């Protein structure tokens, strides 16, 4: 875009009727064509909150936006998505052009409403409720007259306004077919929004001889709830969802029969005639159970600092654990985190550290199960120059001393050898550490957080863990719920998918949603993340919705491995057989086997050691 004088507006009569209306609205609102664009709010946290609120729209639109952006690579144009208030939720396009737009104040989070920015395609499409193009001088404000833009309003399944999709580019790149491209993408987004209708409803997918797709949604009792794009248009003659129509008023077929059929053969298309005697092939399927969980806003978690808050997607148990931990912040009372492998104990410990006044100090993590027993002592306490044969010349600062001023995280504390437990107890009591071979003790100022997947009290009862150390470490205990127990599983899947897909939303098939929701997840979040990561990588196209077929062949089977029969049925034997089976399937590759079992490599080594003992 260049900075020469803006092109003059065309005579009003030369504008199409709907743009004349838009110009009149701006005049009535008192906008001056030569006034600058209003200053736009630009806050990351406000944008984050806004995107959270509109995540179902973003999830439906992102793949289509990415596809459009690829088609437009050579035109130097950008694809924009606004919410129903005209605020930009997402932009994709050439970085140089996006920067130009941002310099005009049109960044993500900016408000394009017609009443603020004058006639423009996004704002005016929303104001007029119709698809339209605004080219160069047709913009009301001079500041926008070097742009050309086409936009289409988007509707929610019930017909309410969801937002608008648009393509904006430099004026010299006007493309006559841009509006048609946006319209096609908008139709597809509306279809995808249907997938998000809460459970307890049925989706009827219809196809006619021209292979035109229509989708209609019905409640359990057959009431017509929604239709989208073609779905609304092609059935307009028979009514609208708001008219409380019933399936049987649209089709010459009993709804009950269709739902029974759908339960027996959900994928099969059946011939179906509507009340206008048009022939379709239709397929009825239940909408994803629990789909509403994904879109319900998380219950408020007021008062939790940002890092801990980021962990709780609304699960009451995790929320309570975070609150309990938070009461310790700054009080030097040790925290003991319990939970199965992969439940996020280390991530929780890091969030605790980041929420504490020690956040600028070090966070030092030691996995007591991963360090060979003979090395734990020197690793933890350090040693002086020449303390023992093979020691490094200049000695070694132990992990405890490294944590000075910050937090020491002792993972798998239940695996600490008894001989070292007394030594650790002294450090905790005296807040001093004496490296091996040293004459003098050093003072250390540390917060201590420990984690274990074992039952430490049982270990105390069995004499494997010192009772006095247990009470030193377990100042406050929190238990992290297993993934299968968490009520925010759907939310968590979405969050991990966004993270794994570099911030781009991904659509999930209902079958996969259901599988994700009901899988027992023995490896918890670690396993979920790795399953999602490999599923994303196995898609043919980045726009493809994730489906069961993208799972590793073995992904659904770990629970079967754990349940394999063993001669005497003991749990430890079953576990060991599962481990050995997986190891042999992975040709002895420890990392691959650990991934497949959904446990960490350290846990796998530990289990093997346990099995060999
Ligand atoms: N709140 C979270 N949000 C997103 N991902 C998480 C979260 N918590 C954990 N994860 C993922 O799960 C993986 C395992 O987390 P973490 O290492 O903290 O678990 P752990 O309980 O300490 O496991 P182990 O007992 O095997 O040491 C992490 O690498 C991270 O990818």
Automatic annotation (TrEMBL):
Domain Sigma-54 factor interaction: 311-537
Pfam families noted in UniProt: AAA_lid_14 (PF25601), GAF (PF01590), HTH_8 (PF02954), Sigma54_activat (PF00158)
InterPro entries recorded: AAA+_ATPase, AAA_lid_NorR, GAF, GAF-like_dom_sf, Homeodomain-like_sf, HTH_Fis, P-loop_NTPase, Sigma_54_int
Database matches in PROSITE patterns: SIGMA54_INTERACT_1, SIGMA54_INTERACT_2, SIGMA54_INTERACT_4
Gene3D superfamilies: 1.10.8.60, 3.30.450.40, Homeodomain-like, P-loop containing nucleotide triphosphate hydrolases
Molecular function via GO: ATP binding; sequence-specific DNA binding
Keyword match Transcription: yes
Domain of life (superkingdom): Bacteria
CDD domains named among the record's database cross-references: AAA (cd00009)
GO terms of biological process kind: regulation of DNA-templated transcription
Span list, region Disordered: 545-568
Keyword Nucleotide-binding applies: yes
Keywords: ATP-binding, DNA-binding, Nucleotide-binding, Transcription, Transcription regulation
Name recorded for this polypeptide: Transcriptional regulator of acetoin/glycerol metabolism
